[in-house]
Design goal:
It is a single chain. The chain is α+β, with helices and mostly antiparallel strands. The chain is built from two helices and five strands, in the order ββαββαβ. The chain has a five-stranded antiparallel β-sheet with strand order 4-3-1-2-5, with helices on one face. The chain starts with a strand and ends with a strand. The mean pLDDT is 90.
């Protein structure tokens, strides 16, 4: 599974992101990431309007021929979505190349 993550918005408008491949991660981290993505698929984000200065998150999931994209807003994250964002943010860098 390949996950492409991009964070944008916020007060300064900085962008950060990462691309992770579960086949290139430690088994423990890969298992955590797969579980978090499974939770995201089970409870996808609800459409909400964007608030000023809030972070927006794009999560693209590639698994075989399946391609999915989720748009999340900082103010509407549920607990498992927040855990996914935290996991991905901790592994991201500023000004990612897309």
């Amino acid at each position: 599974m390949i996950i492409r993550f991009l964070q944008s918005g916020g007060f300064a408008g900085l962008r950060r992101g990462t691309t992770l491949n579960t086949e290139q991660m430690s088994p423990d981290d890969a298992e955590i990431l797969v579980d978090l993505v499974t939770s995201l698929r089970a409870d996808p984000p609800r459409k909400q309007g964007q608030h000023a200065d809030e972070f927006q998150f794009r999560v693209r999931v590639e698994e075989g021929a399946v391609r999915e994209e989720y748009q999340l807003s900082e103010s509407t994250l549920n607990e498992s979505q927040q855990q996914l964002v935290d996991f991905l943010t901790a592994r991201s860098e500023f000004n990612p190349k897309e």
